[in-house]
């Protein structure tokens, strides 16, 4: 380990945090965000929703269970995409020594292999409190005195960076699901693929023949939903089909926007594994995994749509449902990965509707 700080985190408001590098040694910039989860750094770092971001872990010690080995039979299921999506990982205390039956390398070695910056040795809780007070902001990490400009991923059209390039196919069931990939997590694909279904994962800019499918899913993904207006025509075609439609996270925001609602940027977002939401129709509560910086304004929904879930921390919208019951979306992640499994039943709810459509 380094004895003297060799890196500097600089926030756009001028605040600085000296730190040590334990990953790839290169200067980088992006949007600075924090995640309150205690575990799941492999899943979080490979989640495409973190593309272009500098990710802070508020949990103080990270790295003690390493990174899964390539010969682990569950290797692919532990990664939410084929690569690390975050630009940097910022932690308080790094454990270079790891102990887990499936581990094949240390977190630091993995970051270096993936050319991802890693910082440790700074007060991440003080940094998080700063963001909670001031709001989400841009930042840059300077290593070897090599300066870089600030970079705002939310000012960029990010979907070409995180979507598949060609259609991908999963399962051989009778019920046909089209999955519009806006930065989809592997776990979403896994829960949609059942003995009853076959899933076609489509690039974000693919025209969708609504007659060829029994149901549709719009995935999670990164960035500002207001920048993705070119997707709205295909979303509206899915809606007009009258077939089951599920939106997750970014997909939820795109569905709401296509229905005429507005989205807005949250002060510092929801990123963690313990976000409580309430099911408005039954007054039942669930603990959810979340990762988003924008939310839907429920007051701008048309009369055909109703709020479905509400966040109990700040009362923001966490889901909407159409009056037909065929179309619905959630802001949180029912697949979790990582996080609690409370809301995985939503996949069953959707698949039952798709199978009924095929019958």
Describe the protein's topology.
Layout: E1 7-11, E2 16-21, E3 28-35, H1 41-45, E4 53-57, E5 61-62, E6 67-68, E7 88-90, E8 93-94, E9 103-105, H2 107-113, E10 117-120, H3 124-134, E11 137-143, H4 159-162, E12 168-170, E13 175-181, H5 186-192, E14 197-203, E15 215-218, H6 232-241, E16 245-248, H7 250-258, E17 263-279, E18 284-296, E19 305-311, E20 317-322, E21 327-330, H8 345-358
Parallel strand pairs: 3-4, 4-7, 5-8, 7-10, 13-14, 13-15, 15-16, 16-21
Antiparallel strand pairs: 1-2, 1-11, 2-10, 3-11, 6-9, 12-14, 17-18, 17-19, 19-20, 20-21
Helix pairs in contact: 6-7
Written description of the protein model:
With 359 residues, the protein is α/β, with parallel strands linked by helices. It has 2 domains: 7-155, Carbamoyl-phosphate synthase small subunit, N-terminal domain (Glucose Oxidase, domain 1); 159-358, Class I glutamine amidotransferase (GATase) domain (Rossmann fold), CATH 3.40.50.880. 19% of the residues lie in helices and 33% in strands. The chain contains 8 helices and 21 strands. The chain has helices at 41-45, 107-113, 124-134, 159-162, 186-192, 232-241, 250-258, 345-358; strands spanning 7-11, 16-21, 28-35, 53-57, 61-62, 67-68, 88-90, 93-94, 103-105, 117-120, 137-143, 168-170, 175-181, 197-203, 215-218, 245-248, 263-279, 284-296, 305-311, 317-322, 327-330. The strands form 4 sheets. It has a 10-stranded mixed sheet. A 7-stranded mixed beta barrel has the order 1-2-10-7-4-3-11. Strands 5-8 form a two-stranded parallel sheet. A hairpin with a 4-residue loop joins strand 20 (317-322) and strand 21 (327-330). Helix 6 crosses helix 7. The chain is globular. It starts with 6 loop residues before the first strand and ends with a helix. The model has no long low-confidence stretch (mean pLDDT 95).
